[in-house]
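Bug #77: duplicate submission created two jobs. Keeping one. Sequence:
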Amino acid sequence: MEKLKCLVLDDEPIGREIIENFLNEIPFLELVSSFGDPLEAMTFLQTNKIDLIFSDIQMPKINGLELVRALENPPVIIFITAHRDFALDGFETGATDYLVKPVRFDRFLKAVNKAKDYIELKQKSTVHQVNSDRIFIKSDGKLTKILLDEILYVEAQGDYLKIVINNETYTTLATLKSMDEVLTLPKFFRVQRSFIINLEAIRSLNGNMVELTNGKSISIALNKKEELYQVLGIR
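Kept job's structure:
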């Protein structure tokens, strides 16, 4: 595997320096750039390929969570924060891990190994998109065609995905992030870090829960509820 191209983002110089030094100690990581200004980092990301971002959460102008949400196809993210309370918000953006300041090297190493495994898994994804309305997945030792319109929801289960189509369920080795690139608006919506749903399969909404036509109830992440209602045209 080639070295993972990394970007460090932290408005505090000492915070950047610590992560940069840790990063340079690990053979499979390559520091490409480092920023103290999140808007400069965002501009850089629009024209440069990065595999892994180490980003502080609390920053002026735009915080790390907002930056990731603004990226169309964000790289793998490891958030760095002085507040454990931000961890859940970080995971809801699809972050692989989060580090609490002051960052220890052993914890940093654990996080980057987790990110490395995730990236390798994505590269081995068994989901193949052949055109805009269907995919093939490897399940039970064979390639199975799935029409996107028939998918009710997709659920992340560790290193696997559960794809539910009416009364049928398929399990395949893949990441939910890889399906984000296939199941997009206006047909599909990621309601939380573990679920993507077919908007046509919604039967009802009740508070922070959505019920699908097969009876499945799924919780909606707090930061996704308003967006979901807007997509559905509900005010």
